[in-house]
Amino acid sequence: MQELMGLYTKKEVYKRFDEMNLMELLTNSLKVQMKHIHIENNQTLLSVNDNKKVYFILKGIVAAQKDDELLYFRGKNHFIGLESILFNEESELTMTSIGRVEVIEFSKAEIVEFLMGLQEGWLYCYLISKDLNHLLVRNYFNFQAKPYERSKIMLNDLAKEFGESSDEHVLLPKQFTLAILTNYLGISYVTMRKILETLRNENFIVRSDKQKEICIHTKLF
After folding, report:
1. Is 141 exposed, middle or buried (0-12, 13-18, 19+ CB in 10 A)?
2. How far is CA 53 from the centre of its chain?
3. pLDDT tens-digit readout, 165-213
């Protein structure tokens, strides 16, 4: 580790060993097979008892669930299934598509073998795991806040990660329905409706042409 620290700065590690660079390496490798597939809405990609595949998301959103509770989401240019390179480690999560999803499918065994053949291949999985842990810790602290503050912070986070931006607004993808948001934010349907109305009155959320979608004012980010 000390030798590695001498080779790269922290900034260089994050730039050199990110998920996009890993995807490029895998694409150019003759040892790793891949399949381009489309997943329909509400389909399971990975389950508690299945850790033999790895997916790279090209389009769409995948939800991580535990006992029907939504914990986090992964979108474009992220891997799922590489949070751990251990085959005997049982996951407690199920990864499910929300809306249509376009992915590249890999064999986990082939990716692990490929990474183990690289001197610093473990760094790719380390950074994926670290990024996910950061997300989980942030969500944990968000849940200590009251429903109104929690909703505002987490809607803001979703908008930054998944939203479609214009000059003044960010539109959350239609996949984030009221049912999904109430599950993710851990609040009731009635409370969620009241909070959204309050946020509209504060101009944090603005009226959208598409009534079922949430449009957030970028100046209040």
Report:
1. exposed
2. 17
3. 876 788 899 999 999 999 999 999 999 999 999 999 998 988 665 556 7
pLDDT tens-digit readout, 58-72: 999 999 999 889 999
C-beta separation of 164 from 171 below 8 A: yes
- Nearest residue to 97 (alpha-carbon basis) of 65, 67, 129: 65
DSSP symbols for the chain:
-HHHHHH--HHHHHHHTSHHHHHHHHHH-SS--EEEEEE-TT-EEEBTTB-SEEEEEEEEEEEEEETTEEEEEE-TT-EES-S---SS-----EEEEEEEEEEEEEEHHHHHHHHHTSTTTHHHHHHHHHHHHHHHHHHHHHTTS-HHHHHHHHHHHHHHHHPEE-SSEEEPPTTS-HHHHHHHHT--HHHHHHHHHHHHHTTSEE--SSTTS-EEEGGG-
Q: In this structure, what token pair is assigned to residue 66?
A: 């535990």
Distance CA 113, CA 54 (A): 13
Q: How many angstroms separate the CA atoms of 198 and 202, rounded? A: 6
Structure tokens at 15: 């730039």
pLDDT tens figures, 10-34:
777 878 899 999 999 999 998 899 9
- Six-digit token pair at 9? 């700065």
Candidates 220, 113, 115, 106; CA nearest to 160 is 220
